[in-house]
Task: inverse folding
């Protein structure tokens, strides 16, 4: 899981306007995980206080700049109980037992500990697994244009957003998908 901190959002508003940086950091981390075929849930502080961390092996604090004391205490208890907390080296939030590392390293640590059910040879293809009863559904998406996600798009400057958007291209891509579970029947559904 990756924390999206309301306290950080509030702290980024005043005294200097930095609102949106955490959103960019969390989104960048989520996209790294997605390109590695790693499922990642974004959770909030209220969910941590509600006990959700028991459902996760890892908690990532990329973009977190401030935490309420109660949430900080819950995260330290999670780490003390064996949960892995990953954060950047320069994190202003210091959590006892946390492992500082770059976001790319954190994604690889998680993927190596819990390999994704499908390995894809091309990072432009993303895959998510959904389950319904005994069936697993794998949705593979050509996300070639996702490589442009870092271009700013703000509703306050639509003209610049649309101008930058003309630089984005779409391309067909090829890839090999290797499913870890042998013997499954594969059905294909094309849309678009």
Result:
């Amino acid at each position: 899981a990756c924390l999206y901190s309301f306290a950080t959002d509030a702290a980024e508003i005043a005294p200097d306007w930095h609102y949106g940086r955490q959103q960019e950091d969390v989104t960048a981390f989520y996209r790294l995980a997605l390109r590695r075929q790693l499922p990642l849930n974004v959770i909030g502080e209220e969910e941590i206080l509600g006990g959700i961390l028991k459902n996760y092996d890892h908690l990532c604090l990329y973009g977190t700049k401030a935490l309420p004391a109660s949430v900080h205490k819950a995260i330290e208890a999670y780490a003390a109980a064996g949960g892995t907390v990953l954060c950047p080296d320069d994190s202003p939030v210091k959590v006892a037992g946390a492992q500082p590392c770059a976001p790319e390293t954190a994604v690889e640590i998680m993927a190596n500990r819990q390999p994704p059910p499908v390995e894809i040879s091309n990072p432009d293809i993303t895959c998510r697994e959904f389950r319904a009863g005994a069936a697993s559904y794998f949705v593979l998406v050509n996300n070639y244009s996702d490589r442009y996600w870092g271009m700013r798009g703000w509703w306050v400057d639509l003209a610049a957003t649309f101008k930058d958007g003309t630089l984005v291209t779409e391309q067909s891509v090829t890839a090999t998908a290797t499913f870890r579970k042998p013997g499954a029947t594969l059905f294909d559904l094309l849309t678009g």
Notes: The chain has a mean pLDDT of 86. The first strand starts at residue 2 and ends at 3. The two ends are 31 Å apart (CA to CA). Residues 38 and 135 are 19 Å apart (CA to CA).
